[in-house]
């Protein structure tokens, strides 16, 4: 399998909302500016529910590039022979049907988080992606950012020992009293609420630091708890707290004993630090915003030495690059497609499934039931 061959991945952008504008702007950044020379990106088409919005989007975010086809339906993008892969930026509850149509048309798919409304929808999509032999990945952009890769490296190189407790919170004040109840963050028909929108980010840090830790041997959490506070405005969760325990078991081969204490809210600003990972011999703290942090600090402890638990030393790192950070996941898609992979080694199907299984359980314990018809597969 060639790994040195350069390819230009030809993208179709599905939908014209806020996140789609972030994504297109980033993939139009020259990859060489982030020292990427093996892959490149070209936008071939934009699909919207109206062709006018597709044209406006191209005008606004791609300098009116005439080589990009504007379409008034998503299906026309899926049918476009010049498109290799599609990026889906529709609301959560529209991901399943949109991704399924893309897969059936033989397109590789990068789909926004949370990848589906529930785990059953995701399992159905993964089966379809397998059947049609297309690459499929949730757009968990944080996992591909240079800071996350460096935190993971330090967490696993041994000097901190094993992780023991992780705290992570992503909150954002959406001014819920003053936005329409049909806004996707408040509308249960669009999977509104804190958990599905913000919950993926505290969770991604738990997955990076605990689930992915070699001592865990890819074992599932042994316990999941969830607690939701609902807003009387529409009944969606305004704040959610959830925990994961990873216990050593013989059957899983895991020797990790660690807990993640995670939370999210749509009524508050994010706390600082956003993530704290406490290890046997030190702590990593990560500054907000935890979906795209730019700095972190490591404090090493002298545990076991005469000085007891005193801090032995610290390391601080900051990260800068051109663009906002959404392009790193696009590079991953291009590399995987180039190499004929159907899933990413870094954010594979197992991690999206873990996420959706956890969200299902937290919603169950928190009593958040979607309106009838929202979940396309149950
Ligand atoms: N990765 C991140 O950092 C990040 C950040 C924010 C949001 N997200 C995710 O991205 C998705 C979209 O969020 P957003 O903030 O971009 O939302 P948004 O601004 O409301 O855009 C969503 C777009 O989806 C299309 N759409 C299709 N069916 C729709 C429906 N029934 N109702 C409303 N819009 C519909 C619309 O585009 P057309 O009219 O052109 O079809 C709309 O502009 C969510 O799943 C969210 O979790 C990710």
Number of strands: 14
Strand order of the largest sheet: 8-9-10-7-11-12-13-14
Under CATH, the topology of the largest domain is which? Dihydrodipicolinate Reductase, domain 2
Bound chemical compounds? NADP nicotinamide-adenine-dinucleotide phosphate
Which whole number gives the mean pLDDT?
A: 96
Number of helices: 10
Level of helix content?
A: 25-40%
Termini distance? 38 Å
Based on Cα principal axes, name the global outline.
globular
Quick one: CATH superfamily of the largest domain? Dihydrodipicolinate Reductase, domain 2
Per CATH, the architecture of the largest domain is: 2-Layer Sandwich
CATH class division of the largest domain? Alpha Beta
> Any idea what the radius of gyration is?
21 Å
Number of domains: 2
- SSE arrangement, N to C: EHEHEHEHEHEHEHHEEEEEEEHH
Describe this structure in words.
By secondary structure, the protein is an alpha/beta fold. The protein has two domains: 7-140 and 327-344, NAD(P)-binding Rossmann-like Domain (Rossmann fold, 3-Layer(aba) Sandwich); 146-318 and 353-366, Dihydrodipicolinate Reductase, domain 2 (2-Layer Sandwich), CATH 3.30.360.10. The chain is 29% helix and 24% strand. It contains ten helices and 14 strands. The strands form two sheets. It has an eight-stranded mixed β-sheet with strand order 8-9-10-7-11-12-13-14. A six-stranded parallel β-sheet has the order 3-2-1-4-5-6, sandwiched between helices. Strand 1 (7-14), helix 1 (18-27) and strand 2 form a beta-alpha-beta unit. The model has no long low-confidence stretch (mean pLDDT 96). NADP nicotinamide-adenine-dinucleotide phosphate binds next to helix 1 and helix 4. InterPro entries: Gfo/Idh/MocA-like_OxRdtase_N, Gfo/Idh/MocA_domain, GFO_IDH_MocA-like_dom, NAD(P)-bd_dom_sf. It is an enzyme of class 1 (oxidoreductase). Belongs to the Gfo/Idh/MocA family.
């Amino acid at each position: 399998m060639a790994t040195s061959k350069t390819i230009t991945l030809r993208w179709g952008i599905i939908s014209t909302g806020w996140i789609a504008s972030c994504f297109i702007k980033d993939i139009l950044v020259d990859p060489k500016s982030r020292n990427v020379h093996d892959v490149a990106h070209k936008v071939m088409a934009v699909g919207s529910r109206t062709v006018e919005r597709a044209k406006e989007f191209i005008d606004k975010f791609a300098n009116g590039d005439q080589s990009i086809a504007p379409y008034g339906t998503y299906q026309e993008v899926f049918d476009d022979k010049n498109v290799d892969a599609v990026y889906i930026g529709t609301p959560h509850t529209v991901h399943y049907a949109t991704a399924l149509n893309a897969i059936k048309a033989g397109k590789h798919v990068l789909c926004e988080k949370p990848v589906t409304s529930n785990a059953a929808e995701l399992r159905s999509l993964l089966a379809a992606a397998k059947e049609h032999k297309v690459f499929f990945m949730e757009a968990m952009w944080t996992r591909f950012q240079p800071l996350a890769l460096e935190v993971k490296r330090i967490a696993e190189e041994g000097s901190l020992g094993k992780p023991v407790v992780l705290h992570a919170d992503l909150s954002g004040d959406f001014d819920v009293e003053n936005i329409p109840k049909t806004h996707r963050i408040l509308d249960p028909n669009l999977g509104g609420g804190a958990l599905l929108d913000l919950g993926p980010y505290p969770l991604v840090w738990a997955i990076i630091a605990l689930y992915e830790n070699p001592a865990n041997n890819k074992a599932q959490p042994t316990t999941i708890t969830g607690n939701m506070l609902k807003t009387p405005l529409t009944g969606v969760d305004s704040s959610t707290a959830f925990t994961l325990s990873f216990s050593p078991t013989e059957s899983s081969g895991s020797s990790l004993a660690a807990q993640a204490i995670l939370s999210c809210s749509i009524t508050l600003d994010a706390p600082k630090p956003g993530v704290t990972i406490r290890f046997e011999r030190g702590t990593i703290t990560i500054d907000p915003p935890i979906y795209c942090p730019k700095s972190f600090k490591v404090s090493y402890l002298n545990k076991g030495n005469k000085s007891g638990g005193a801090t032995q030393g610290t390391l601080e790192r900051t990260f800068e690059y051109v663009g906002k950070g959404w392009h790193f996941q696009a590079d991953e898609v291009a590399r995987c497609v180039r190499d004929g992979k159907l899933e990413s080694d870094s954010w594979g199907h197992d991690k999206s499934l873990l996420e959706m299984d956890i969200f299902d359980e937290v919603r169950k314990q928190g009593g958040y039931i979607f309106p009838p018809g929202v979940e396309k597969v149950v």
